[in-house]
Amino acid sequence: MITGPTGPGGALLVVGDVVTDVVARHRGPLxxxxxxxxxxRRLPGGAGANVACWAAYGGCGDVRLLGRVGxxxxxxxxxxxxxxxxxxxxxxxxxxxxxxxxCLVDTKDSAERTFLTDxxxxxxxxxxxxADALLDGVGRLHLSGYLLFSxxxxxxxxVAVTAxxxxxxxxxxxxxxxxxxxxxxxxxxxxxxEGVDVLLPSRDEACLLTGLPDASDAAAKLSRHVPLVxxxxxxxxxxxxxxxxxxxxxxxxxxSPRDSTGAGDAFTGAFLAALLxxxxxxxxxxxxxxxxxxxxxRVGGRPPRSDRRRxxxx
Length: 314
Prior knowledge:
It is a single chain. The protein has 9 helices and 13 strands. It is globular and about 55 Å long. Strands 5-4-1-8-9-10-11-12-13 form a 9-stranded mixed sheet, with helices on both faces. Strand 4 (63-70), helix 2 (74-83) and strand 5 form a beta-alpha-beta unit. It has helices spanning 47-57, 74-83, 151-166, 178-184, 186-192, 203-210, 215-222, 263-276, 281-296; strands spanning 11-15, 19-26, 39-45, 63-70, 86-93, 98-106, 113-120, 138-144, 171-174, 198-199, 228-232, 238-242, 245-250. The chain has a single domain (11-28, 40-296), classed as Ribokinase (UDP-N-acetylmuramoyl-L-alanine:D-glutamate ligase, 3-Layer(aba) Sandwich).
């Protein structure tokens, strides 16, 4: 049984991916067939792990992360999560290496990034790694959308959702990847998220899921399937929709982008932390926008470590 102090709204349990990011920051187009100068760093990442770290940074006093990593990097990832204030519940996979994502970041303009993803051991997180006791003391359950892109993960999602609903624990999910989502299919996605209370798509993901070109229309339509929908729009802020209508439009916070890796994860983590302290969805989305702005000014997908916070260590 998991015990320990929780915040006013209970603990946050995140279930999702833990990977190693190799961030290559270059300027301008890649030079095909030859060298392109870049600044390269190896950093801890993964959408699920990033969300957990930003939730802890946002003030959630008890954040737990269930993930699967290879023996090659398990000690390092556990140490990094602890340093960010997260309680790691990592399954060490002896048959698969830790996932690796190569993040190509163009340092011009918006610091947009392109991912090359080998999810590794994260793809093997499944029902056998779940126990209902993981929900002891938990006020919210968050599922990384990357779970939906593997057979074990797709099997785990309904198990976790059913267990959470039996305890009255609300469930959120971030679709995670428009590219993988297109391959999964809209109808399949909507059936898999049955029972989820909060959906946190990006603008591209919301439009893909609805077939609508306008983010507001897409948010409104999705909120007929999921009770609360929050669409992340980057520099255009966020939309909060319920019962088929957009109820709040949250302005973005100005930032000087260095690397957009993990900005959506930062939003999600801060949003969930705020909900757990009793904030209304609009207030929580504003906290998410602040965290997203903070994230794009740093290299990598994590906030400053809790053991060495300072104004900018990115």
